[in-house]
Amino acid sequence: MNRILLAGAVLAATAAPALAQEAAADPYPYILTSLLFLMGGFLVFWMAAGFAMLEAGLVRSKNVTTQLTKNIGLFSIAAIMYWLVGYNLMYPGDNWMSGGWIGALGFAALEPVGAGADVVDTSYASVGSDFFFQLMFCATTASIVSGTLAERIKIWPFFIFVAVLTGIIYPIEASWQWGGGWLSEAGFSDFAGSTLVHAAGGFAALAGAIVLGPRIGKYAKDGRVIPMPGSNLALATLGTFILWLGWFGFNGGSQLAMGTIGDVTDISRIFANTNMAAAAGAVTCLILTQVLYKKIDLTMVLNGALAGLVSITAEPLAPSLFGALWIGAVGGVIVVFTVPLLDKLKIDDVVGAIPVHLIAGLWGTVAVIFYGEANLGTQLLGFFAIGAFVFVTSLVLWFVLKALGGIRVGEEEEIAGLDTTELGMEAYPEFARG
């Protein structure tokens, strides 16, 4: 099953007349698949808490409240924008404004059936469950941007960017594959979004980091990288475990069907592979940081687990457990070597989201060729087409926001911390800020 088939079935269900009068021959696949979307959706929703805790732990204490505000704000904005325009733009059915490139405009409408009514036809799943599930992926894309740009971006320009990203940019590029657009026709394969969600969020974050610039004092004139430790590694670890848990819904729900024995078996396989990739990414970073730095780096280990998860997301079903292990392990290697590379380029990524989501997303997209029918050329075409679109549109939007009113707080505000200067509210008021 894939999102294109689901989109067609859900749109057909929306248009079906007399929905509450015609009973389906077998309602159980409909019921179980709708339940899969709802359960998967609230697991992916829980990832919003994971991002919030991870970021709160990896920023300095003077910026914690700001990160928490950004995370609850971005999710809420995404929910409204995806309803207002994003869902129909991503799943236009036959209503493409430009063949295979841009979907239809219009807000999502969920047709009521009525309390206690039987399901009327053999449609795939309820429209509401599909909308709910897909919304969570949209919001996840925005969450990736938040951590990279922490500790120096103004809140309201960030929220404006999120509105455009979740309402327009993400739905357009996701429609190219999951909405039956041109990438789908070309044979591109991305099961749950290594490119469409994670790399897309990474490209948006990269564009923002370039326009925004590094934090004050991050890079010394002599080329040294000045460490800026996070405020609470316990929170960062909690956030990683929450994300790990939510990923079972992210990948498992992307099976998009739970009405047969085969579907449930596949979902269990996806869960096992997802877990294995995360574990392998973490263990790889445990070993590599011990060897390279003579001490384990917890922040690298946390990001190694996340990179393993991103790496397996493009194809979590087909590999064996050993396949998931080595795919996730490569994700861990990517983190250890890409984080310092970004610092050499003076790209300040506060939480390491670009290595985890963009670079590991590229790897996961390429790794599909080892276990699926996709070819390398098509996978690279999809990755770089989506990357170019998201990066360029995000870069333009960041420059526009910068020109209109600025996107970065002043030097004094940044040094004092965004919690007091942007919000007037501290996360840890009883402690000295640092």
Word description of this protein:
The chain has one domain (3-13, 39-97, 127-423): Orthogonal Bundle (Ammonium transporter fold), CATH 1.10.3430. It starts with a helix and ends in an 11-residue tail after the last helix. It has helices spanning 3-15, 28-58, 64-90, 127-148, 155-175, 182-186, 194-212, 233-252, 261-293, 298-313, 321-344, 353-367, 376-405, 411-416, 418-423. The chain is globular, with a radius of gyration of 21 Å. Residues 14-24 and 113-121 have low confidence and may be disordered. With 434 residues, the chain is an all-alpha fold. It has 15 helices and no strands. Helices cover 66% and strands 0% of the residues.
Write the layout of secondary structure elements.
Layout: H1 3-15, H2 28-58, H3 64-90, H4 127-148, H5 155-175, H6 182-186, H7 194-212, H8 233-252, H9 261-293, H10 298-313, H11 321-344, H12 353-367, H13 376-405, H14 411-416, H15 418-423
